[in-house]
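CORE FACILITY INTAKE
Project code: CF-77B
Contact: R.S. (postdoc)
Sample description: multi-component assembly, four entities in total
Requested service: structural model of the whole complex
Turnaround: standard
Below are the sequence entries exactly as provided by the requester. Do not edit them.
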Amino acid sequence: MVRGRRDAAPVLWHRKHDHRRCFEDALARAVSLCRRCGARLTAIRRRVLEVVWQGHRPLGAYEILETLRAERAGVAPPTVYRALDFLLGHGLVHRIESLNAFVGCSDPGSSHGGQFLICRTCGTAAELNDRRIALAIEGCSSESGFHVHHATIEVSGLCPNCQQSDAKVANA
Amino acid sequence: MVRGRRDAAPVLWHRKHDHRRCFEDALARAVSLCRRCGARLTAIRRRVLEVVWQGHRPLGAYEILETLRAERAGVAPPTVYRALDFLLGHGLVHRIESLNAFVGCSDPGSSHGGQFLICRTCGTAAELNDRRIALAIEGCSSESGFHVHHATIEVSGLCPNCQQSDAKVANA
DNA sequence: CACGAATTGATATGTTATAACATTGCTCAT
DNA sequence: ATGAGCAATGTTATAACATATCAATTCGTG
């Protein structure tokens, strides 16, 4: 449970990153993952996944809804929530509890709780998946006799870019 | 930031625990803490704190509201939310993001993010405050150049009691 | 093609949280 | 004492997030 796989996370802010590329990769992985397990990545589900990925920050369900409504009439909240449930169930997106928002999973296919660094200035969220954190939590929990099912880890703070911006403002 | 102070957490489930006593202690600490920093622990705020502590599991704002309404007429949501904001601001309660609920802080006065073990069967939440977890998160974050402000850590699973109950059911 | 199951549409409603402004009541300088 | 200033609370309305329910449609399969 709560298996971390990478120690060095490919954090969003480390380098300029090709948004289109990362999004297309995610979509391709989703398609192949669904094909393998016989799940139906229908048009709506696929579109919701695209919208979530293109936002590249956690999006609220009603933000997604607005985007869909601009494309086709008559989309209602249940449509979005059902698509999100599907995507959550297949590990293609994560829910950010502290924001009531959703974000694409950067490592679908591997079973893992999400670990997120969320910038409270620019709103971007980087998915971390660090074994040390998972192990620390698993360790403490089992010392208390607690059996872990899922760990929600959401760290709020300042991303590197926004720290710089802050400094500039302070110096001005 | 996110300083853990104890390594061995006094987890709720370790022993039978005197509910009245723990609640009275919490209230006494709150009173003295507010006196020291000049904050006004008014009747409403105090009552909300009592209700939250007596629940001894995370309570939703509207659950608290119902309790208050049974005692005095005309209490509305803002009343509860304002009291909760005050209590959150002074570190007397924590918000559980994954439940949209509130729980008394077992260690007010020390600055700390909350770490919670939440049983998905009985609903109780035990506050942990483990340095190892805090350090792991601080470490990973700073490796990514991220400056931590607040860490939300909410672990869902089975408490010792409910693991036993499950086993009994399975054997029956 | 017809069947059953999964998906989506449509409407209504439940749940959580805050905005906005009026009122009360306390403190403190005069 | 007294009233200006401010913090707290009351009151109403509404925003934001989420789900229940049932009808209609679509899709894969025999």
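Facility notes:
- The first strand of chain B starts at residue 93 and ends at 96.
- The radius of gyration of chain B is 17 Å.
Invoice: internal transfer
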